[in-house]
Amino acid sequence: MKYAYALTAMLCGFFVGCSEQKxxxxxxxxxxxxxxxxxxxxxxxxxxxxxxxRIVDMDLLSDGTVLAVxxxxxxxxxxxxxxxxxxxxxxxxxxxxxDKTVHWDFKRDKVGNLAYMKQGDVFRDADxxxxxxxxxxxxxxx
Length: 142
Description:
Layout: H1 2-19, E1 40-46, E2 53-60, E3 65-74, E4 76-89, E5 92-97, E6 102-108, E7 114-118, E8 121-122, E9 132-136
Antiparallel strand pairs: 1-2, 1-9, 2-3, 3-4, 4-5, 5-6, 6-7, 7-8, 7-9
């Protein structure tokens, strides 16, 4: 029983001693500047009605072309390479891929990512989650 009282007293002393430490304020960090252009590498998951999962990696190039690698999982994975063009205006990216058989629209958010749009609005799944293509400012080497 003596040990329990001694241990309790030591722990109380420890907590009181720790609570008296004063922390220094954090230094001001420079603001993060998001580039105004949309050129770069993006990766994310797109909605899929007839498959288990659809993952897309895409490069938006400064000449207005798109190179997208789409991995569709329906029991097994199928990888397709889609090429096309895009235009960017008023925070909207419009893409025509695979000889204009595939058309995607995205809305650029305030941090530079692209949210998939369907019928003029940002797409949300049954849980209310957006399909977002995350922008990587340094391309990941595989």
